Amino acid sequence: MVARRRRAAAVYYLSVLPFVLFSLFPFYWMVVTSFKQNSEMYDLRAIPFWFRQPPTLEHYAFLFSRTHFLTWMGNNVVVAVVSTAAAVAISILAAYALARLRFRGSDALGGTIFAVYLVPTTLLFIPLSQVLGFLRLVDTRWALIVSYPTFLVPFATWLLMSYFRTIPYDMEESAMIDGCTRLGALWRVVLPTAIPGVLTAMLFSFTLSWNEFIYAVTFVSSTAQKTIGPGVVTELIRGDVFYWGELMAGAVLGSVPIAAAYAFLLDYYIAGLTAGAVK
Questions:
Q1: pLDDT top residue among 22 and 271
Q2: Fold of the CATH domain 70-274
């Protein structure tokens, strides 16, 4: 019996291994390239997957000393945190209303909200630019903070709707019988129970806003207001000259916060995703 379980486990892990390697290879390539010397990157005799010359930190030094990378990182943090907080707060109220309140067209409205998320950002940035221009927010961080919830709220609302529906309504009824208002029941009963779903929505929203590129490169042009993605690409690609080491160093540093967030919140993330899958 033990041998059979070991063989089954070995088959399982061997079947998963190619997908794991496929997923981790881009990050491995970024890390290795960010530490390579420029002469080695352009040497056809060099080993592309490892080092032939001693690793160097010159690309990271260039990034911190000769670009505005720390400013871009700070802008990214502010934009991602504020837009995520605003989007999740709005989504909690919207998802709770669609999951609990009964009114005509509630089901259709829930599906419509998710359909809005599927609209490509390449179709929305033109009308959004007109709105942001009217509000005089173009070329500021507020342009991104205001525009990001347009695609964060639909997805987070749809995700939280399915989670709220798994919470027994009897808990809220008991709280309201004891004197809570509906908002009080939401704050004191529903939200503590729905923490895995809320954290999952926050994690998804933070990831989407952190990695967003089209709005960031369209609505912001000044170097001091850029986020990491547009800043690294526009400042380190000059005509036909690509600063590959610095580009890879920026990609590595830009991916660290997301990797850390998923590592620390993995259990909540899995619980939030699977909540509506089993009845």
A1: 22
A2: MetI-like fold (1.10.3720)
